[in-house]
Structures are given as structure tokens and as C-alpha cells.
Specification:
With 116 residues, this protein is mainly β. Helix content is 0%, strand content 59%. A hairpin with a 5-residue loop joins strand 5 and strand 6.
Length: 116
Amino acid sequence: QVHLVESGGGLVPSGGSLRLSCAASGNIWSIQSLQWYRQAPGNQREYVARIMIRSEWPDYTDSVRDRFTISINSAKNTVFLQMNSLNPEDTAVYYCHASTNDGDYWGQGTRVTVSS
């Protein structure tokens, strides 16, 4: 099993930046990729970004491609999401998700609020 804990959320003005972290523990060697999703009030959870563990190849949804950067530490157990040029549409609970050899795991989420 894999346990995920997100941190770094908060309140930020429009145009500001935040850096989210997701720490993975447990059977981290089974993780194939780590993703960030978000869920705004009244909306479905949506994909934001992904990083492949072995290649560190990133991928982004179009709405964040030029503003967000996903990265991973050298120990391959913490994934980051650097978010720049935030706008109120980025307000959501951000969730970390792990795709592993034995299933999918979610963190509890961290709330990001962007004020206009």
C-alpha cells in the first residue's frame, strides 16, 4: 500500500504562487506515476498534471501548462506542484494520486484558494 500526504495549500491573491507537496510512504517502489488532480466546489475532480517516476516525464492539462510545474525529488518519494500566475479559477482542493502496480491511491487533499 501507498500513503500520500499533501501540504502547501492556502490563500493567495490572484497572480500569486504556491508550491504543493505530496509525500509518499509505504510501498513507494510500486509507484509508476504520480498525478495532481483538483476539485472545485460543485465540479467534478479534474486532472492537472502527471510525472512518470522512472523517466520523470511531465504532462499537464492545457489550462495549467504554462503556469504549473510538476517535479519529483531524488528519492522519488515526494512530488511537487509549483503553481504560478494563479487565478480564481484555480481555486480547488488539490489531490495527489499514485498509480501503482497494485492499485490507485489518493491523498486527503489540500485546499487552494485564490482571491480576486
